[in-house]
Amino acid sequence: MDVAARIESSLADAVLLAEASGAPPRLAAAMRHAVFPKGARIRPRLTLAVAGACGDDRPALASAAAAAIELLHCASLVHDDMPCFDDAETRRGKPSVHRAFGVPLAVLAGDALIILAFQTLARVATVAPERLGPVIAAVGDGVGVPFGIVAGQAWECEPKVDLSEYQRQKTGALFAAATVAGAAAAGHAEAEAWRLLGDRLGEAYQVADDLRDAVETEESLGKPVGRDAVLGRPSAVAEFGLDGAVARLRHLSEAAVAAIPCCPGQAMLRALMLQEAQRLVPRKLATAA
Amino acid sequence: MDVAARIESSLADAVLLAEASGAPPRLAAAMRHAVFPKGARIRPRLTLAVAGACGDDRPALASAAAAAIELLHCASLVHDDMPCFDDAETRRGKPSVHRAFGVPLAVLAGDALIILAFQTLARVATVAPERLGPVIAAVGDGVGVPFGIVAGQAWECEPKVDLSEYQRQKTGALFAAATVAGAAAAGHAEAEAWRLLGDRLGEAYQVADDLRDAVETEESLGKPVGRDAVLGRPSAVAEFGLDGAVARLRHLSEAAVAAIPCCPGQAMLRALMLQEAQRLVPRKLATAA
């Protein structure tokens, strides 16, 4: 099974749990709406790429870790899109969850997706019991307090914002979790050594996201664009200009590749990361800088 | 350390994580507000009582399980109190989290408390790696889909409600998780056998809650009363009358005690459960039925 199919299959298995007889059907529908059809799945692909480079000797655990990372990403989108935050009407080219199902079910679908991430990991505990703790710690720390994506989002509620913490927590933390969890799932002796790769990829992705927000259309992106400028949010484009932001993205991608720890599949992973980095540059800017 | 001190200490350790330097301080304050000062702590006491009856040979894991159960209970209160659900202004005698910190931080504090429950468990993984999966599965299933408390709450968003599923999921599921997780943390060979005790205690607690809503004052309870009647919610008092509800509570408590599985501390646990059951009856009704 290729990586994309493996991710979709793991996510499908997870979401199916919500559709058991006797469970509230609209909650299950809202969860499915939040997870499918797929987005870029960039974080779970990263988890599986790292697990693969480390030998991937417990594929069921790596698949569960990848699914958990994506479920948490989807949960954060559901809650961040709500009227009390971004008030986004569309996501992945269709109505956001609260527009389709109402705010109460958006709150609950987000909650249920967070929990589902950990249920998904618990279900494969027996394939490598001693690895479950490190994987869950990596995943939990990537989304929770003190420095995960929920903490990152909470900076929007502070009177005084630490911008670098805000960006690192809101975006970088889940990329770091994706790499560390992938390495831990494959039994890498120094899973924490993979954090730097995730941090740098997260920063690169944040710049790429700023670029897309500046140059793409709502149709091509499937969500509203130009939001950074409208909301006065910090952005690499505002800070460095378009060409400068593209150059920064390339620099960060190279720094990320250089941070890949020693592992059996190091060369292969380097090639894959460079290829993925190319895809981060919006097509209409691919020749710039 | 007695049970109450052990629970408060575990919760204090957990919440302290949010207060690290570099984390958003208002999120940490909202989380602390949601967890302290203490409520009845009835669910974590149940977890420790079951773990104790099963030998409690890994106390750090049992304490973490108890804290996780209570953190998830607090998270559900934070989200359920929000304007899109119960719109409750007070909780435990002070403003609800969204009244004190605003809706965005209520959403995020609830999210962070859910995640903190699993982080807390992951942190003690090494004391008994092979038990972590069963404990996390019990905890996750008690709060998530298809039959946990989030699913229970979601029945309020369905056009057609299955009342028995609603009550069992919304209240009973976390009691069942509290018993199963306590048994699993202590290495009981048949942790699932403890579910029936939790189910029955959860049902008893639901009846007790209905009684309190009917006969207590907002001052004595620390939250609004008479809400079931105002919102037309199903209630044991509406169904059986006051005396009938007290009788039902007593019947359920006895059935719960009878469901305690064989374990080293069975006699002690029976005595403890009967004593706890007495406390469930509101004082002004304690001589009725």
Automatic annotation (TrEMBL), chains A, B:
It comes from the Bacteria. GO terms for biological process: isoprenoid biosynthetic process. Keywords: Isoprene biosynthesis, Magnesium, Membrane, Metal-binding, Transferase, Transmembrane, Transmembrane helix. Its cofactor is Mg(2+). InterPro entries: Isoprenoid_synthase_dom_sf, Polyprenyl_synt, Polyprenyl_synt_CS. The chain crosses the membrane at residues 101-122. One of its GO terms (molecular function) is metal ion binding. PANTHER family: FARNESYL DIPHOSPHATE SYNTHASE. Belongs to the FPP/GGPP synthase family. This is Geranylgeranyl pyrophosphate synthase.
